[in-house]
Amino acid sequence: MNHFSNNIIKWFELNQRDLPWRHTNIPYLIWISEVMLQQTQAVTVIPYYERFIKALPTVYDLAKVEDDRLYKLWEGLGYYSRAKNLKETALTLVEKYQGTIPNTYEDLIKLKGIGDYTASAILSIAYQKPSVAVDGNVLRVMSRYLGIKEDISLLETKNYIKHHLSGLINQPTRSFTEGLIEIGATICSKTKPNCLICPIKDNCFAYNNNLTGLIPYRSKAKDKKEMIMQTFILKDLKGRTLLKRQTETLLNGLYLYPQVNSENLNYAIDALDSLGIQVLNLNKTKSYKHVFTHLVWHMDVHFGICEVNNDEYVLVEEKDLPLYPMASAHKKIKK
Ligand code: SF4
To answer: Which atom of ligand 1 is least distant from the CA of 187?
Structure first.
């Protein structure tokens, strides 16, 4: 290991946060934690991870879990396709790998929901193989350290950083991999890096050239698509709430209140009517906004009474509502 790697490993061993997945090298647990950590901060993940591995402690438990229970365990983490892929992959692991997690990049990358970063992280953290895992934190730290002025969202930039780091590691690397990620998560923040306490500041190009405000460079993201929704919290005459289980990719497996993409309330009521949902009376409550990665929903929410004649919808007693995994966009309305 060279000076750069040694500094990171030494710093990490003294300064790392105490996170539950750092107490294990069981590949199943590392895989679950890495998937949860995609797009979500470590402190947010902790209670979800603990609850999940208590409920589903092995790959066999995950492979046979009911979808509703899985989504309930995932509720609040968002990006539900991650949970769906976890289960699909668990089934593959049971069928093809006797319930073990593969220990080669070639086998890992074939599994659903496991991309370059997750495969490399599992190899490095669970199997102690000299593998370089480059996530958003590592991209930020390394682009600043090396003074890279190319767009960090480009694959070429990521490959360049990966190649550079590969030249630095030749022995078991868990502390190096996690150390680099930890610097990104706790010191080298997007807007205010705390360079004075950074273990690699001496040779950091951005710090030494006063360029931390300009690097990493990223070209402007495309605008998100905006959608206006009429959203209905409807009860039948017995006081049961109307929900629909989603089957499209975005929120597959989760429940939503009936909703119509329109600015016009009358049009939305007619659309529900054509689906066998007759709205008997209605009060508007409030408007809500929910932001997805590429999409924004502006929801006008209405409370009301209805009669239903459509088997694709479910009517749920008040006491049973917590058992139904709701999409976050509607969960906050419920609150
Ligand atoms: S010195 Fe500052 S900019 Fe450079 S890696 Fe450390 S925290 Fe990031």
So the answer is: 7
CA of 11 to the centre of ligand 1 (A): 14
Confidence at residue 12, expressed as pLDDT on a 0 to 100 scale:
95
| pTM for this model (two decimals) | 0.73
Q: Which residues are catalytic?
A: 34
For ligand 1, atom 5, the nearest C-alpha belongs to: 141
Say whether pLDDT at 333 is over 90.
Answer: no
pLDDT (average), residues 269-283: 90
Three-state secondary structure of the chain: CCHHHHHHHHHHHHHCCCCHHHHCCCHHHHHHHHHHHCCCCHHHHHHHHHHHHHHCCCHHHHHHCCHHHHHHHHCCCCCCHHHHHHHHHHHHHHHHCCCCCCCCHHHHHCCCCCCHHHHHHHHHHHCCCCCCCCCHHHHHHHHHHHCCCCECCCHHHHHHHHHHHHCCCCCCCHHHHHHHHHHHHHCCCCCCCCHHHCCCHHHCHHHHCCCCCCCCECCCCCCCEEEEEEEEEEECCCCCEEEEECCCCCCCCCEECCEEECCCHHHHHHHHHHCCEEEEEEEEEEEEEEECCCEEEEEEEEEEEEEECCCCEEEECHHHHHHCCECHHHHHHHC
Q: How far is the CA of 306 from the centre of ligand 1 (A)?
A: 58
pLDDT value at residue 167: 82
Distance 189 CA to ligand 1 centre (A): 9
Where are the chain's structural domains? Answer: 3-208, 225-334
According to CATH, what is the number of the domain 225-334? Answer: 3.90.79.10
Of all protein residues, the one whose alpha carbon is nearest to atom 8 of ligand 1 is: 188
Atom of ligand 1 at shortest range from CA of 141: 5
Which CATH class name applies to 3-208?
mainly alpha
pLDDT beyond 60 at 1: no
